């Protein structure tokens, strides 16, 4: 079964996303699309609707694609910094 989520941050190690799905820390999931691929991940943190996912066993080609995407993104700044 597929569910939707909104990704907020991504790195070579994982991503954070908001979802209405009730996931548990430690639960293994499949995320798609991540650089147009299906990747396995585990839920490492959860706070309300926000989840932190750690990627598992990424192929070297997928790691390189994620790295390239990240290089083109602006650095994250906390909203407090923008006041």
What can you see in these coordinates?
By secondary structure, the protein is mainly beta. The protein is globular and about 30 Å long. It is built from 1 helix and 5 strands; from the N terminus they run βββββα. Helices cover 14% and strands 42% of the residues. Strand 4 (37-47) and strand 5 (50-56) form a beta hairpin. The longest helix has 12 residues, at 60-71. The chain has a 5-stranded antiparallel β-sheet with strand order 1-2-5-4-3, covered by helices on one side. It has one domain (6-73): Thrombin, subunit H (Beta Barrel).
Topology:
Elements: E1 6-10, E2 14-18, E3 28-34, E4 37-47, E5 50-56, H1 60-71
Antiparallel strand pairs: 1-2, 2-5, 3-4, 4-5
Q: Strand order of the main beta sheet, please?
A: 1-2-5-4-3
List the secondary-structure elements in sequence, H or E: EEEEEH
Low-confidence stretches: none
Report the CATH superfamily: predicted glycosyltransferase like domains
Mean pLDDT: 90
For the record, what CATH class applies? Mainly Beta
The third-level CATH topology is Thrombin, subunit H
What can be said about the biggest beta sheet? 5 strands, antiparallel
User: What is the total tally of β strands?
Assistant: 5
Q: How many domains, in number, for the residues? A: 1
The helix-and-strand class reads mainly beta
Q: Label the overall shape.
A: globular
Helix fraction? 10-25%
- N→C terminal distance: 41 Å
The fraction of residues assigned to DSSP E strands is 35-45%
Q: How many distinct helices?
A: 1
Gross CATH architecture: Beta Barrel
């Amino acid at each position: 079964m597929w569910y939707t989520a909104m990704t907020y941050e991504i790195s070579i190690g994982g991503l954070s996303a908001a979802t209405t799905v009730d996931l548990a820390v430690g639960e293994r999931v499949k995320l798609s699309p991540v650089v147009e691929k299906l990747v396995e991940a585990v839920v490492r943190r959860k706070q309300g609707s926000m989840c932190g996912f750690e990627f598992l066993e990424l192929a070297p080609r997928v790691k390189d694609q994620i790295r390239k995407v990240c290089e083109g993104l602006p650095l994250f700044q906390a909203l407090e910094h923008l006041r």
